[in-house]
Amino acid sequence: MRTASGRRPLSFWLLTAFFVLFVLFLYGPMTAIYILSFQGPTGGLTFPMRGVSLHWFDALFGQQRTGDFAGSLERAILLALVSMAVTLVVSVAAGLAFRQRFKGASAIFYIAIASLVMPGLFVGLGISLVFQVMGVTPRWWLSGLGAHLTWTLPFGLLIMFAVFNRFNRAYEEAAIDLGATRWKTLTAVVLPILAPGLIAVGLFGFTLSYDELARSKLTVGAKNTLPLEIEAMTTSVTTPSLFALGTVTTAVSFLIIGLALGAIVMIQKRRTRRAGEA
Amino acid sequence: MADNDGSGRIEIQNVTKRFGSLLAVDDVSLEIPHGSYCCLLGPSGCGKTTILRMIAGHETPTSGAITIGGQDVGGLPPVRRGTALMFQSYALFPHLTVRDNVAFNLKMRGVAKEERASRADEMLALVHMTPFADRMPAQLSGGQQQRVALARALITNPRVLLLDEPLSALDEFLRLKMRSELKRLQADLGITFIHVTHTQPEAIALADLVVVMNQGIIEQAASARDVYAFPRSPYVARFMAGHNVLHGRLLASVAETHLLEGPTGARYRIPATAGTPRRTGEQVFFSVRRDLIRLTREETGGEAVENALQGTVEAVEYQGTYVKVTLAGASDEEFIVNEPEHAYFTHPVHRGDTVVASWGVEDVHLLEEDRAAGTKAAPYGEEAA
Amino acid sequence: MQRLAPYLQVAPLTLILGVFLVVPVTMIVLVSFWSYDEFDIYPDLILDNYQWILTSPVTWSLYLKTLYYALVTWAITLLIGFTISWYLVFHVKNLIWQIGLFLLCTVPFWTSNVIRMISWIPFLGREGIFNQALMGAGLTGEPLEFLLFSDFAVILAYVHLFTLFMIVPIFNSMARIDPTLIEAAVDGGARPWQVVFEVVLPLCKTGIALGSIFVIALVMGDFVVVRTMSGGQSATVASAMMNEIALLQYPTAAAGATILLVVVTLMVAAILRVVDVRRELAG
Predict the structure, then answer these.
(1) Do B78 and C199 touch (CB under 8 A)?
(2) Among B89, B181, B182, C109, which residue carries the largest CB count within 10 Å?
(3) Which chain B residues are Cβ-neighbours of A5 within 8 angstroms?
(4) What CATH topology corresponds to A77-231?
(5) Residue limits of the ABC transmembrane type-1 domain (chain C) (predicted)?
């Protein structure tokens, strides 16, 4: 604890050191492979760097041995976008429902929690069995999408719970008092106020789907998504191409995270500025 | 603890506390005798809680020293100071029963389980909470939680009990009840109580020593009667309520009195205090107690009568034993007259009536300047948001 | 109409979870009693699949290995998660910094697990960064072999990937502790370690329980990390199941999955018996 005089105790510095080490542990290896992905053409899987080049990124698109990189990336992004959209709409609707009492509420809640905790392998195996028994071919945009939703929806629901918990219902009542319809109240009052929370739901919806492997494994069918492609490559590819792939996929993730966090910060800033002007 | 005399006498010597650029406590010195009930009184942000927390050891002074029982407690942890703090929010541990909350200190010191329980039960008996020993804090009302917090603080056998706004979370009825219980407890235990509050009736009802604070500075530290009846400065007079604060420019000195001219042209006659020479043109502040002012229903007829102000009745509030009459246009700040009930109802006044308020020279109380800068219009008794 | 609203609003969620979670999991249990040959699976009601699994000595060693991984990972992630949360909640007083550092810890959650896992390979290998550093410093003459493709590598990757699941719930429940409770404990004579064990730990046990459930379920259900990071030398229950699936022995895999599901559920139930997390989740 910080002493009042501003001097910090020894425990603070020890814990700060621990935190820094943890962050290094978290980011260090990732950073290393981003750097290694810019290896020169003669470089290997580890340091030293033999020059700096985009050779291994070229190789991703060019050569046969890296598999269907472009297609799997495209599918992963498409699937993530659809997951995000579905997660948003379904979570908001469910979040609205859970503000009232209704029969079966706790059963549905526990199923959602079970879905969160359920190892992805079971979901994948179960869905693939259902499709097999029904004689339907698994496809990434059907069975794959369903599998991903079992992972993104519980997160969306929990975030909506947190968001609605902090939402003051007086805003809604005021809007209805002022003559707004229920639909207008939702679109013109509730959703704009909840915007930062909705962005968070979208962020989870996209990134969790985009990176999902365990649930995808048995459900995407013949065409791989990117995480599966990467997993396959870990055993077959022994060049820095693998790292280039990691850099590309992480860049996509960081782009999305940056957009989402940036949007949230911007909304909050605009609100405090308006509050300051008022 | 060989280097203290075991008493709860507290000395605060030139203590200053800064939080970044904010000066919370500004070079404060204060002595609190052993076994006294001391109230630190002031609006929020005046530094009273900071002083309490520095005595408790939860904050360290930026400069200056604090001694308890003659021992410099700088750097000592709370438990070695012989102090116990009762938190405003009570800070009861939500995961422990009432008994375990009270016994917390004993458990920390490694006292055996049976002894812990029996001593905790003794403390609970002291605060009349025996039937609730096995409950969880969340199952108690605010008043009950406070009793538990009190028992938990007292089990450490403190020389000094520190209370941070102990009554602010209670409703009016409980507040009065707990107030007298605190006083009884302090008398029984004979230890020093330091009680932080922003409510002046609470302070004057409880304290042997009232310390009125403003902007990190002590405006007055004196007995409850002295602070109430003889406020030192305009700030104290306004904060304690019960007074009308007036001021004027010195016109002339006649015999044992001075004549002042107020901002609205009113003439005030005030006693000349021995030993304080005054210059003509000097600004003089004084106060007159609300209950020492007479209200007359006739107008003055325009001629300037000394120590009489004409005004319009703005509000009338019935207070039981007296009636509070607020006048508009009498002076440049709020002017209130407290008329005894029977006097008022013999000749009632109504909103809009023109009345004259007057007082005698002997009822004038002279004020010194405020110590803190820029405190001109501090509202009394009210907590600034 | 107004009375129907919540049912309509929750319908999409219920439908999706029903079709893609409840039905599939039920299907696993059903298929575990079916029979199969090398071409297809057939509805049946036989116990052969269970008998085969439960009488195989391999099963027991797989479970032993899996539980070992789960336990060690749980202990390490708990220690790290608690310490990091403690630091963020009680030592970082500035709210902006607190949120910023918390985000710094959670951002990797939104990036690819596979990439984060394989990023250890250039670190730990024979020619890896770690061995280069050790040998460069003269601490060891030969590269350390146990770093990669070993239990060490598997647990390291688990800790790397799953500590977040511990930090987030523990941070959440710890941040809700009224700081005056800590002061009250200090005032009541508690030493720093007593503050930890008598006040903070009991008050964030719901967060600890949630994190524990996550980490245990994730490790018990993992088949990717163990295969890659052990270099195929170790197997867990889940990774063995994947092999059966690759051989199209679905009913056996389903029976294995059912047993694993029961084991995980029992572990979760045991945690829930000790700590009631319902309020934490709903709040």
Answers:
(1) no
(2) B182
(3) 60-62
(4) MetI-like fold (1.10.3720)
(5) 63-272
